[in-house]
Design brief:
The protein has 246 residues and is α+β, with helices and mostly antiparallel strands. The chain is 19% helix and 30% strand. It has a 7-stranded antiparallel sheet with strand order 2-1-7-8-9-6-3, with helices on one face. Strands 4-5 form a two-stranded antiparallel sheet.
Length: 246
């Protein structure tokens, strides 16, 4: 019998959390209902700032760079021996759990990894997409669109044959927004103020000009403001001044 912290959401007749694979190749892989609802979930959001050190100053100049996406985290619980009528999943899953619940541990016929893999494989790269699939997490009023970024598995109990029968998954999802919708709701700042950018690997003056001014041809103004002779030789980590437009 499971002894530990009680999850009040496990046995209550609440709607089961559903993770929808919006890019699944097969219909039977599209919806994944959790076996037990999480005890809680956490949402975190952050923004990124660059700190520009100024000679002789007590503090750096802080420059806003970009907003960070939301991060959704929760723990999922799995047990193939104690599952009762409140367990989620498909009808076939529930029938298998109910049948297995009436067996003793030595007679166990379910490996808990059969069910944890439904979650962990959401991080696998899809051949047609060249990336993991985009997901939609639904639970009553919670609607979160993004990708499964990490999933830590803990196997807690085993049957007499050594197969795991109980597990928890620590899941973390990162938000994804359509780029057109993102810029429609969060337009770039006005180019009429001087800004600073830290060069990253792969950056170019024309790309920065296109992003900041909407015109890649304005790269020469960035080069002139920073005394750059060869625009192809940017050093990652250096800070560039993006001058205000007239």
């Amino acid at each position: 019998m499971y002894v530990g912290r009680q999850n009040l959401n496990a046995s209550m007749k609440l709607q089961k959390m559903c993770i929808i694979n919006q890019e699944a190749a097969r219909d039977d892989e599209r919806e994944i209902y959790v076996l037990y609802n999480p005890e809680s979930y956490r949402q975190q959001r952050s923004v990124n700032y660059a700190q520009l050190g100024l000679l002789g100053a007590d503090a750096p100049l802080v420059q806003f760079q970009n907003g960070g996406g939301d991060v959704l985290s929760f723990e999922l619980f799995f047990d193939t021996l104690m599952a009762g009528g409140e367990v989620g999943g498909t009808n076939s899953d529930r029938q298998s759990f109910e049948s297995n619940r009436q067996r003793t541990s030595p007679e166990n016929q379910l490996d808990v990894r059969t069910y944890t893999r439904k979650i962990t494989r959401l991080m696998s790269i899809q051949d047609n997409l060249h990336r993991p699939p985009e997901l939609l997490v639904l639970w009553a009023s919670l609607q979160f669109r993004g990708f499964l970024a990490s999933c830590e598995q803990s196997f807690l109990k085993f049957d007499e044959k050594g197969y795991p029968v109980r597990a928890t998954l620590q899941c973390q999802f990162i938000e994804h927004r359509d780029i057109n919708l993102l810029f429609a709701t969060n337009p770039l700042g006005s180019p009429d103020t001087t800004k600073f950018r830290t060069v990253r690997e792969g950056d170019s003056l024309w790309a920065l000009a296109a992003q900041e001014y909407g015109d890649a041809g304005r790269w020469r103004e960035i080069a002139a403001a920073n005394g750059i002779v060869n625009p192809r030789r940017l050093r990652p980590g250096e800070t560039l001044t993006l001058p205000a437009l007239d």
